[in-house]
Amino acid sequence: MEAAFLTIPDAESEGGAMAEERPPRLVDYFVIAGLAGNGAPIPEETWVPEPSGSLCPPRPADPITDVAVIARALGEEVPQGYTCIQSSAEGHPLELSAGLLGGTQPVICYRRGRDKPPLVELGVLYEGKERPKPGFQVLDTTPYSHSANLAPPGPGHPRTYLTYRRAAEGAGLHALGITDLCLVLPSKGEGTPHTYCRLPRNLNPGMWGPAVYLCYKVGLAKANTLVYEAELLGRYPEEDNETFPLPESVPVFCLPMGATIECWPAQTKYPVPVFSTFVLTGAAGNKVYGAALQFYEAFPRARLSERQSRALGLLSAVERGRVLGGRAVRSRRAIAVLSRWPAFPAFRAFLTFLYRYSVSGPHRLPLEAHISHFIHNVPFPSPQRPRILVQMSPYDNLLLCQPVSSPLPLSGASFLQLLQSLGPELAITLLLAVLTEHKLLVHSLRPDLLTSVCEALVSMIFPLQWQCPYIPLCPLVLADVLSAPVPFIVGIHSSYFDLHDPPSDVICVDLDTNTLFQTEEKKPLTPRTLPRRPYKVLLATLTNLYQQLDQTYTGPEEEASLEFLLTDYEAVCGRRTRLEREVQGAFLRFMACLLKGYRDFLRPLTKAPSEGVRDVDNLFFLQGFLKSRERSSHKLYSQLLRTQMFSQFIEECSFGSARHAALEFFDSCVDKVHPEQEKPESTPLVELEELSGSELTVFITPPEEPPVPEGSEPTPQYCYDGFPELRAELFESPQEQTGALPVPGPSRSAPSSPAPRRTKQEMKVAQRMAQKSAAVPELWARCLLGHCYGLWFLCLPAFVRSSPSRVQALHTAYHVLRQMESHKVVLPDEVCYRVLMQLCSHYGQPVLSVRVMLDMRQAGIVPNTITYGYYNKAVLESKWPSGTPGGRLRWAKLRNIVLGAAQFRQPLRERWQQQQQQQQQQQQQQKQRQQQQAAAQESGSSQTEPYQDRPSPTRPLQRQTTWAGRSLRDLASPKGRLVKSGSLGSAQGAQPTVEAGVAHTRRSPMDSLLHPRERPGSTASESSASLGSEWDLSESSVSSLSLRRSSERLTETPGSSQPPSLEILLSSCSLCSACDSLVYDEEIMAGWAPDDSNLNTTCPFCACPFVPLLSVQTVDSRPSASSPKSAPAGASGSKDAPVPGGPGPVLSDRRLCLALDEPQLCNGHMGGATRRVEGGAWAYLSPLVLRKELESLVENEGSEVLALPELPAAHPIIFWNLLWYFQRLRLPSILPCLVLASCNGSPTPQAPSPWLMPDPASVQVRLLWDVLTPDPNSCPPLYVLWRVHSQIPQRVAWPGPVPASLSLDLLESVLRHVGLNEVHKAIGLLLETLGPPPTGLHLQRGIYREILFLTMAAMGKDHVDIASFDKRYKSAFNKLASSMGKEELRQRRAQMPTPKAIDCRKYFGAPLEC
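and the corresponding structure tokens:
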């Protein structure tokens, strides 16, 4: 795939994009270290580090250039200049093939010098069994032309010869070579000397004589050298970054072996610069990564004293003052960069380019221009800039790629180099040493290898964090740390051991010889103490990966061409990256098995903190954890539990830390592993996340050259003899530096804004659970419900801050939490508990935090590291209530006694009240009979005054909820009931009688449904005009009508509250454009995909994906500032309206009662009032998608944005979806108030607080099941036609024509079939009336929806059991399918909703309004 390029010449040409975002720099500082170059004389005293161990004998000055074998039995003598090895390393006499007849008594000799390249490697060859290695020469003859066979003569003994490899010609003075040889006798108890490499072949393979092995030491043999402590010679920028000041110790890390002055032969070539890396650790544990390039430059002799010149060999030691010729003086310097990112390959390429630039030329640009350009314009790769190609010159490039997204901490570790250098067994031994906090000294002749291996050593013990001294590349000036009485991990150059022996209590690891050296005084480490099965799996995995390392690409990245970087780099290096992750995953699995089940032994805080609360014994059950491990590993666990890193780990788990995401990832790994298995799990623990799908490559060009006048040639003007001193006037000034750069690490939020965001691991788990739940209807509904509660808790911080009583708001949130638990949602998010715990900590409610934790555990949720940390912080940092707990307990006991006594007296009081009520009821019934008989005799009809029998003028109107005549309050009171009059079939205009007691005549409910033309004042429920209405209507005047929840307690004072000023209508019913069908809320929910990035749902009729819309309409009834105050609603001239202040209509006045549901009346306004109506439609988002968007909003703008009046206009999709879900679940929120606040305009700057909100009672939110605005070109729904025929006022009048076939007779027939449980006949009648498609009538609603809405409109929502209706409809569908076929019924949209849709409707509460 071809990559897209974005060229960025410099910061100015980039415009404001990068400047506004201010991406983190790749490099923060550039420094030069070495000897001061101001021309002053060098101090006489050289810098010699303090010895941290016993001093070694003086090292030889010259390397070994030749090796020979002489046969003493044949009379050969040691050649001139050669040294003979006559004894073993510890002084034992040595003679090869001793005591054998015919033996030649071979002896090994060597010679030192500088006349030829030194030897760099030795070997032993068994002739006839193998071939010599490439580049090796066989030493098959002695200097006297005899055979150089080391084996004794005779059959069965292979001829044994020495082999050697010499350094390349022109390697120069600084080539590594063999500096010493020795022979060891294992039979005498001799081991390989420290820093020596032992050949694996026995030099005496015969049956007679002891085994003899040859060992050699590789080093850098140099003479005539003066060593000084390095100084800072230059830096850029000169000013320190506030968040990242330049450490003072940087120069000594750039030149860890000191700044040297050396004397070379005049014709000696300059050696190749040496690249090294180092890590500096701050006081807070943050790491600073450095990379240095060491090189040599000419040094003026004039700065040397006579004593220094004599020490360097520049003056004759015999003739005082005579200068020796043919000598050159060189000094070692270093250039380095410091960064917070371990991008070592890029640093190496950049430093190499600068060095080459300084030794070549002339150039048109100064060196300072390239340095400043690289620092200011090269950012660290990010998702917005996944690939950055830096063009430093026409021939020098480097490619930066975004690191693989992993929950593991970013470091400079190279697990492959660790495995290559040590092998599987030694790597596991070092793992044991680190776990038990031993002193580790890692050394090598390659300084760039030390940092990567030491970083791997501290990374392999994740999640534990090394707490002791850690210096991956230790300068000689800091070598005294090796004598520290604490554990440490230190890396040092192997030449240190030319001066000092290693300390006796330190484990030395030689990366060059793949050996581990430990003194005999201490018992050697053995992996047998590790858990048996996890150790076997780790060893087998590492052995398998070790065998694959030889086939990987190991070429230098800085030498890659531009074409290679753009095409083959990722493909070639991908295998190596995969192996790196597999090695890391093997160690991660072992650590997960090692700490399996540790969370079960954490001790949460449950009371006020006391002294020593942070001790590990109070936070973790050490003995219980130890007893749960296998007995063979108790020694290891006993040592591990006493380490500092384990104590720190337990404290981080208990109180949270910046590593919470990494610790949570480790907990997920612990859940995946099975320590009892003898093979690793099939699913890798380290799942690499795919980077952003963008193939964008940001191309950064070199700095611009100065303009050239027309007609003239560009003239280079910068030429250097060495690396120059930095000049401030030549640096490019940054175009824009507003503020400090962001510090890498976890994102931070304001102290007052808790971070209610999920971690990446929680998002992964939620995504997997959603995919699993999507296959089960009930689980899918509960999954969506759980995410809705998660949305509410995301908004909880803003809700609490906006509440007048913060404590009351927290208790409200706790009740919502209990409500969520009662619904048994799928995977209750820990974010819900975590946010509430953090708010309890913020507002000083530790007791409530403890209750939340107990409820969380009762729900079966094991808190992860983040939640557990927030909980303990809340308990530890909050102020606990003062007072003695004994007093509170005694008051609680007294309260329980009083309540218990009251409960015992309650039945006696109720029995007496019932007797009194029965007597009053009998007397009242007798009185009413007498009054009815007298009225009938006088008028001769059944009419009565509608309000004469009311006991109180302020008694509220009661809704009828059952066809048996029981009212809403019959369940709570056994008094008289409101029932239908026996005159249901009276003539039009007659008013039915409301009787107390049981009606004399009862009719079937269907009688009241089938004759609406005869009875316009029918007694159908008030809900028939407003499906899903939940408001009780007071008997007060219409102008002071108040709306209250039916679940709330009704007040007896009329006109106690004002009508709402703003009405919000919401509907999720959406039209599928593919089949022109309306899809309703539960069907939309069922069609959503378990993907937090997919906005589509699936149409249940045509299976086409489409984006559903959430329609919004706001009705503002407040008078405008310029208009006069509107007249009271009671002043309307409508003759049917109730008289203001009158007793109100009776229940039988069907039309007048249903008119009370009209928005104009409900809002306290009549037709003459001014109403401003605004509407719109936004995407209806799945809770999964909405949560992702809301988390992104909170992360970018803070949780405060959720309480600002600008939210509806700035983020309308998020706002209206949140309002829909919160109202659907009846969750308290401040969102309705934001609508009213946004309508009032922007708050003035003088406003005391943005959290001041309007009165919530001023806003009414209604959720509608059907569309807000009907389509006039479509057929009207049947329930609307029923209301038209029944003369019931509607919210919106039908704007289009009505087909003649949809008559009232059809509606009554459908209702009759439904009432007689003949739903299949109702379906068939509708299908027959509509006709076959495409010629027949097309209803936008399905048959199921038409019949359901018609039934609810005729009978009332409270009288229709939708679950029972679904069963009957399903039975009818199956009956019709046997005759018509299921496919034809589906084509004509007669199927019922899917089980997933039905479950969604069930779990999301009562049906909505129409």
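(Above: one complete record from the training split.) The mean pLDDT is 76.
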